Amino acid sequence: MPVPQQLARGDRMGRGPYEKSGLIEDTGLPPGKTVKERFDIMYPLTEVEESGKTVNKPSAYDLDVEVKLWYLPFGTPNGDPFLWREFSKTVSISKSGK
Amino acid sequence: MRRITARGALVALLMGVLATPCFAEKAGIGWKETIAAKSGKAKTLAELAKMYDSSSCVECHQEQHEQSQKSIHSRSIFGTARTAMTIMTTIENGLMEEPYSGVKSPKDVKVEHLMGCAKCHLPQLRDAEDSVAQELVSTLYSWKDAKKKKDKEAVAKYEEKLKSVSINCLICHNRNAITHKWQDGYPKAGVVYGSKGGDHPADKFPKMAESPIMSEAIQCGQCHGLGPNLELDEPTQCCTSYGSYLWAYKAEVGQQSCQDCHMKKSKLGHNIQGYRDTAMTDKAVDFNVEAFGYHWRDGAQIAPKAVVKVEMVNRSGHSIPDG
Predict the structure, then answer these.
(1) Are residue A45 and residue A11 in the same domain, yes or no?
(2) A44 & A88 share domain
(3) Same domain, A46 and A68
(4) Which of A50, A62, A74, B12 qualifies as a FRET site for B38, CA 20 to 30 Å off?
(5) Is A98 domain-assigned?
(6) Number of neighbouring beta carbons within 10 Å of residue B28
(7) A10: alpha, beta or left? (left if phi > 0; alpha if psi -120 to 50)
C-alpha cells in the first residue's frame, strides 16, 4: 500500500485525504517486479527420554501450511478484508533416519 | 423624471449582470460553448443533475448503461457509503480543524472546500454555486442522521439524492473528454465525445466528435491520481495509481492503457472495476508458493523446519493495492 505522508512533511503517516500528501513508502506489489518472501517455520519439539538421554523430538511430523495474500483496505483484518490468493499444503518430514 | 429613468436603466443593467452565468473568464477560445458555460452555474443539486443528465443515452446505449450502473462511478459521491462518510470526516477533521480554511461548521462549506473530494468524486461541482455545496453537505448529514435513527425510508431518500449526481456518461464523454483544451478545444454542449465523429441521432446531443484521449490512460488519470492535488489551496490526495502507472509501469514495464485492462481484456466494458471483480483480480497477480520440510541441524541439535517460499508478480499497470 502506498503509505501517505501527513501534509507532505516529516515522518508521520496521513490517514484522511485531507491530510495525505506524498508518500513515505509503498509496501504494495510494484508492477512487473518479482517480489519474494521466505518463511522458516520450526516444527514443534518435545523432550523425550531415549536410551537414557533427554533428546528433542518433533511432536508433529506434518505441518499444515497456509499462505494467504490479503488486501486490507482499512489496514486491519477487521475492516472489509479481501483475500486475493491462498495456498495450502501439508508439509511432512521423515520419521526415520540418522 | 430623467433621473428616475436613468436609475431604472441602472437597475435593469444590474439585474442583467446578475442573471448572466457567473463563470470567470478563461483565456482559451471556445469555453463559452461548454455545457457549464451555456447552462450557467447550477444553484441546486437537481439543477446540477439536470445539467449533466445522461438519461437520454440509455435508450440506445442500454448495454453500456447497465454496465456502468454496476461500477462505483455511478454512485461516486456515495460510494460504498465509505465515500460519503469520508467527505464528512474531511469536513470535520480536515476543514474545521484547519485554521485558515474559513470553515467553523459544516454550514460554512463552499464549493472550493469540497473540490478536494469533488475533483474526482463529482468534478461537475465546479460548475455549481456554493448553494449546491451546502445542499450536498446537508444531504450527507441528513443521511448520516437517518442512519443513526434507523429510519430506512429517510436513508433511502437521501441515498437516492446523493446518487442523483455521479460520474455518468457525460462526465467522461463530454466534460472530461478533453484534457488539452487549448490544443483540442473545449468540450462543446451538444457533442458526445468518443472514438469517432459525425452525426449523433439524439435531440440534446446531435453531434459526435473524436476525443483524442478517450482510449488513453490520461482520461482515467484525471482522477486516478498522480499524488497531491497541488492545484488546490489545500492539497488533498486519494489514489495515486496514475502516478504509479507512469513512473513504475510505463517507465519500466509495459505499454497497456487503463482501458486495455479494466475495460477490454476484462470484458467488463463500462463496468469499470478493480479488486471487487474476479475478472481483474485473477489476472492481476501471479502467486506461486513452494513449501517443503527438512531436518535442519543447529549444531548437534536437530531442529526440523518447513520452508515456505512465496513468489509474487504484479501483472497490473500500477502498484497493488492502489486505486
Answers:
(1) no
(2) yes
(3) yes
(4) B12
(5) no
(6) 11
(7) left
B237 touches chain A (CB under 8 A): yes
Beta-carbon contacts of residue A67 (< 8 Å; ≥ 6 apart): A39, A86, A87, A88, B289, B291, B308, B310
Q: Which tens digit of pLDDT belongs to each residue from A7-20?
A: 999 999 999 999 99
Q: Do both A51 and A17 map to the same domain? A: no
**What integer pLDDT is reported at residue B14 of this predicted model?**
46
Contact residues, chain A, for B307 at CB < 8 Å? 38-41
Q: Which residues of B touch A8 (CB under 8 A)?
A: 228, 235
Contact B72, B162 (CB under 8 A): no
Which pLDDT does position B323 carry in this prediction?
62
Q: Tell me which residue in B235, B293, B310 faces A21 most closely, judged by beta carbons.
A: B235
CA distance A12 to chain B (A): 15
In this structure, the strands spanning B191-194 and B207-210 are: parallel
The number of folded domains in chain A is 2
Please tell me whether residues A44 and A89 are part of one structural domain: yes
A91 vs B306: CB contact, 8 Å cut-off? yes
pLDDT band at A73 (very low <50, low <70, confident <90, very high): confident
Please indicate whether, in this complex, the C-beta atoms of B281 and A84 are within 8 angstroms of each other: yes
Whole-number Å distance between alpha carbons of B201 and B78: 32
Q: Are residues B132 and B115 in contact, defined by beta-carbon separation less than 8 angstroms?
A: no
| Type of residue numbered A16 | G
Pick B308's closest partner by Cβ from A17, A30, A41. Answer: A41
- Whether B288 and B310 have beta carbons less than 8 Å apart is answered as yes
Please indicate, yes or no, whether residues A47 and A21 belong to a single structural domain of this protein: no
| Domain interval for residue A69 | 37-93
What stretches in chain B show pLDDT beneath 70?
A: 1-23, 323
* A46 shares a domain with A18: no
A83 and A42 in a common domain: yes
